[in-house]
Amino acid sequence: MFNSNGKLILLHNNLKEIKKASRYDLLLSPQFYIVKREQLPVKYAFQAKKLAPSILEDLLPNEHGYEYEYVVQKDGDAWLFFAYRPKEIENFVKGCCRIKASQIGNIYFADQLKPVLEKLPIGIDEYYALTLVDGFATIVPRKMLSSEKYAKFTNKLRPNKAIKFKPSSRVGAASEDLSKSAIVASVLLGLLGIAFAVEGVGYSKAIKQNNSKVEELFDKYPQLQSKITRDSIKGKYSKIEKKQRAIREDIDLFSQLSSKNALLNSLELKDNEIIANYSVDSKELKKFKSVASSAKLKVKPSGNRITVEGAIK
Predict the structure, then answer these.
(1) Beta strands 122-123 and 151-152: pairing type?
(2) Alpha-carbon dihedral sign for residues 85, 87, 90, 94
(3) Is the separation of the CB atoms in 267 and 294 below 8 Å?
């Protein structure tokens, strides 16, 4: 959680005037983000975040000039996947309220107010209110609600968990960073080699140092954050390099199967095999099976859900 002294604003399309402040925190209404709830067999947020683009892909309008930023939060036994566009937010607050991107501190999502919305709608203005529809925060006209009471939006409604706002210049720069991916990948593999080579008294210390460096690289280049890299560096130091290389090659095969029409639902790494589950468009089933089979992967179809297994040799 990030501490904040910024003035909290409920961001919605009808926002016009606000009190001046040097720093602002934004609670985004559903007009400024997309959300989806999914149950996935993953334990950590970084694993779930890797799947966010695939899970939200069909819900995101592809507008030129807008890059998406993804956030994942645990929600009981499931995960909430959020996607928002920093540039859209920056353009809106600049136009309506003369707020600069540098003045935005943290952001929150209206769905984080679910405990409040389960009791009362939150008034936005005299015409609209924030309420729950099918379990998700939604803006509706007040005349559609039977409630005679509305919670007032104040700083006291600030959710516990904040997300540091990433300006569009940083999000857009991710595509430029891709050109450096080969260099960074080499560094990651170098760190992996060191982890396997270090022995004796200095083993534990070296591993901690490597973990710190890897985490820094993951923060800067999230597109390189793969399950196999993290598992190799953090949990499988005793495995021989030959086996790790085989695993990475298998992961590459599985990633090549993923596309807009073949979404990766889950990926499980076992001792001697890798198992993945995909949702495949009916028009792509034949091609998908052909590609997987040619890569010597075992295919188990069940309707448009296909399980693919690869042996680790």
Answers:
(1) parallel
(2) negative
(3) no
Q: Report the C-alpha gap between 222 and 215 in whole angstroms.
A: 10
Task: Report the C-alpha gap between 278 and 302 in whole angstroms.
Answer: 10
> What pLDDT does residue 227 have?
47
Instruction: Tell me what pLDDT residue 215 has.
Output: 62
Rounded distance between C-alpha atoms, residue 99 and residue 284, angstroms: 46
- Determine whether 154 is exposed, middle or buried from the number of CB atoms within 10 Å of its CB (0-12, 13-18, 19+): exposed
The rounded Cα 70 to chain-centroid distance in angstroms is: 4
**Under 8 Å between Cβ of 162 and 127:** no
Calculate the alpha carbon distances from 33 to 101, 156, 225 in Å.
Answer: 17, 22, 24
Instruction: With cut-offs at 50, 70 and 90, classify the pLDDT of residue 214.
Output: low
Q: What is the largest CA-CA distance in the chain?
A: 71
Ordered DSSP codes for the chain: -----SEEEEE-TT-------S-EEEEE-GGG-EEEEE--S--SHHHHHHHHHHHHGGGS---TT---EEEEEEETTEEEEEEE-HHHHHHHHHHHH---GGGEEEEEEGGGGHHHHTT--EE-SSSEEEEEETTEEEEEEGGG---S--EEP-GGG--S--EE---HHHHHHHHHHGGGHHHHHHHHHHHHHHHHH--GGGHHHHHHHHHHHHHHHHHH-GGG--HHHHHHHHH-TTS-HHHHHHHHHHHHHHHHH-BTTEEEEEEEE-SSEEEEEEEE-GGGHHHHHHHHHHTT-EEEEETTEEEEEEE--
Say if CB 214 and CB 237 are below 8 A apart.
Answer: no
Q: Per residue in 16-68, pLDDT tens?
A: 878 889 999 999 999 999 999 999 888 899 899 999 998 998 888 766 557 89
